[in-house]
Amino acid sequence: MPLSPAVDFRAIYDAFHSPTTPIDCGLMCAPHNPHGIPFCCDICSAVPVAYQSEWQYLRKNTDLWHVWRGDECAGEDNNRKQLMAQTPPHLRLLACKGSTECQRDFRAVSCRQFPFFPYLTSDYRLIGMTYDWEFTAKCWVISNLAAVTADYRREFFNTFDHIFSTWLEDMDSYIELSVETREHYAAKHRRIPLLHRNSGAYLISPLSERMVRVSVNAFKPFHPYANSHSQDTAQSTHNARVENIRLSGYD
Ligand code: SF4
Ligand code: SF4
Fold first, then answer.
1. Of the bound ligands, which one is closest to the alpha carbon of residue 21?
2. What pTM does this model have?
3. 18/55 Cα distance (integer angstroms)
């Protein structure tokens, strides 16, 4: 597998820096994590990934990251071989120093995009973002999609438009993940929740790919965030999970 061509990661990071929501969502999810830290920064919940060339940039510019060893989650077994086998060759599993020592300027793209990933149609159009279903019971953002800012959404799509124009293998990974997403939701008899790049929110039939525009407030919050949800949830129409390759959960 050829390595990715030279990419200016400083430029990518500078153009994808807006917070996902106006409030620090880590303060919302950390109280629900027995480890007391945001789930997406907890190596026991998720292993971050970086593009191979992104890792080369990070290793030269910060001491925040190291290559994932598999022993960072103290006291827990992990399926290291399986996780490594599942990781596409253009990506590298990493671990950081942890949330108390995070260097915001050197967060990986996988940190910035979490809990979302690009969704592509069966004719390969990047039409929107959907979320990692493995984190519905952990990530506060997934239960509060209305709080995701317009700036974040714009930067997300600009970033992946750029990445996909550079790395076809990464686009291929998300094409495969989008196929898996349709299969997953089809098996659940649910529609796929989508934040569209046109600023709207949609539910997509996983079989016909027919799209129905909905209020972003209509998406159902998940336990344990349902009770504290500030939005009208009466119209909720989905309850499903999406698997993400960007942060690979192993619990
Ligand atoms: S993105 Fe989700 S899991 Fe990560 S800090 Fe925010 S609420 Fe927590
Ligand atoms: S680099 Fe920061 S945002 Fe990314 S996993 Fe580590 S603590 Fe979390």
1. 1
2. 0.89
3. 21
